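Progress against Task 2.4 (sequence-to-structure conversion) is shown through the following example record, which the project officer requested during the mid-term review.
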Amino acid sequence: MSITALIAATALLAGPVPATAPTPLTCQGQSVDQTAKISYRNEIFVKASVSTVWKLQTDVKNWPRWQQPVATIERLDRGRLRPGSAFRWTTPVPATPSTPATTLVITSTIHQLKHNQCLRWSGPAIGDGLRIDRGVHVWTFERVPGGTLVRTEETWTGPQVESMPDLSRQFLAQGLDTWLTDLKTTAEQGR
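Structure tokens generated for the chain above:
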């Protein structure tokens, strides 16, 4: 047996090498809550300019036009989105074995924002029988050949969501994956 074959056989017997956790996404040096038990991260390539994607994502009052899960939204301040800007939005949540169907009311406050590059916001999400004490959400937008690479990462904290981590992570993943897909579809259609 050659040395190469021996090394390959040893690697197969040892199993896969555990992946190291990626560096958290940041906006102006600030990341999600790295101590949170509930987290999810994903990315998507969008065949559209960074400015097109940025305009869709930061025009929060028009989210319901392209994001079916966003039922309502209200800006709590005026002008361009900036650090300190806040908005309240709602999204329906189906029943689970441990929570009733409800509508989450989410109040988000922008903490960091760098034009065409990144956003970071946080806030609570509260519904009948469901509470996320604090969600922290980071978005990054990177110009790449042929379009934009959009990355997002979010964390949730609070006793209720932490008591059902797998289910919470599943709902968080579903929500962010749908958001990314809707953002891609809308940006690529030029809406």
